[in-house]
Protein 1
Amino acid sequence: KAGVTQTPRYLIKTRGQQVTLSCSPISGHRSVSWYQQTPGQGLQFLFEYFSETQRNKGNFPGRFSGRQFSNSRSEMNVSTLELGDSALYLCASSLGLAGGFEQYFGPGTRLTVT
Amino acid sequence: GQQVMQIPQYQHVQEGEDFTTYCNSSTTLSNIQWYKQRPGGHPVFLIQLVKSGEVKKQKRLTFQFGEAKKNSSLHITATQTTDVGTYFCADDTGRRALTFGSGTRLQVQP
């Protein structure tokens, strides 16, 4: 079956702009989690959605938001971009809530903020 | 918040040598998951450990969960160039979010 897909794969934005990233989970997976990966901070949890509801949230400012649709596809939005938001954004899907189930990661969206 | 520390940050070995990465926490870990990320790739799930003292093997890889559930380790016997990548442990913090360790980058010299 098809893996997790993320679009776009690469993105260049300017400070102050906003961006929306998309994630399509594996068919049948109801949980989608988002992570930010940077060389300095490693893999940091942003939030998790399950059945269209945000179930867990990491320690990120309110500029980072997300949502999940009835088909389990998810989007994350970052408003008022800052240079420090440059990172690889990974989404992962799982059968159940992230804790306790293996996560299947997508290829990521590489965001560069200039 | 909870922190999961991983050591070493980086290890360079000759092909055929063994390799171990350690995952430590000052608080009790819930369940540990291990992932491997190849250069330029995304994390791929390797295994989950749940019970205190648990040991699991996957071919040349041996995973352990400490008796006190405050540490875990991944040992690779006789490394191969295909083992190159970054290995992450992650705690599920009581079936909530996954808290990832900082990762250990493994380089294997042929």
Note: The interface with chain A takes residues 1, 30-31, 33, 35, 41-45, 48, 88, 90, 92-103 of chain B (CB under 8 Å).
Protein 2
Amino acid sequence: SAVISQKPSRDICQRGTSLTIQCQVDSQVTMMFWYRQQPGQSLTLIATANQGSEATYESGFVIDKFPISRPNLTFSTLTVSNMSPEDSSIYLCSVRQGNIQYFGAGTRLSVL
Amino acid sequence: AQRVTQPEKLLSVFKGAPVELKCNYSYSGSPELFWYVQYSRQRLQLLLRHISRESIKGFTADLNKGETSFHLKKPFAQEEDSAMYYCALSTGNQFYFGTGTSLTVIP
């Protein structure tokens, strides 16, 4: 199984600022995923990050708002840009190995 | 469209009582179904998958293609089972999660 380290674990940010979330995996993986988990709602896929190519964004999410980097097979970052209170949520990094999804512990973001 | 439905947002049972968390899916192909669990202050983790056909922590789930269901069952609930449970469907390319069921086991 994959072990995923995600940081920061939580942050409180001011409106209009940006936060970059880091995700480190203990093994090389082709696909990394970023999800958002809002209170009382399911996990929503933001984008899929493949090494060596641009991330693929789901409907409702755009690169300008959620830029993603994937410099190698074990690391990815998600930036939440120009934050507003509506961005307050838990952001999860995930990888897939053998058709099983593994998740990081999440980043709990609060935007004031 | 692929979709996973968990009709119960909240479920409370008494310790020792049977518990069933419902999951229905909609998918035209051959699905692979999973149950994920998130205990308080822990990360989301895999509980079981239908192809394994195994019991984990006393939980089982049977894929019923006729009813397009993958309900999670345990004959005797324990307090430590209190958690958030997500049903998930994999199409190979994509994972789809249900909205989750929060299970509370009352001592």
Note: Chain A touches chain B through 16 residues (CB under 8 Å).
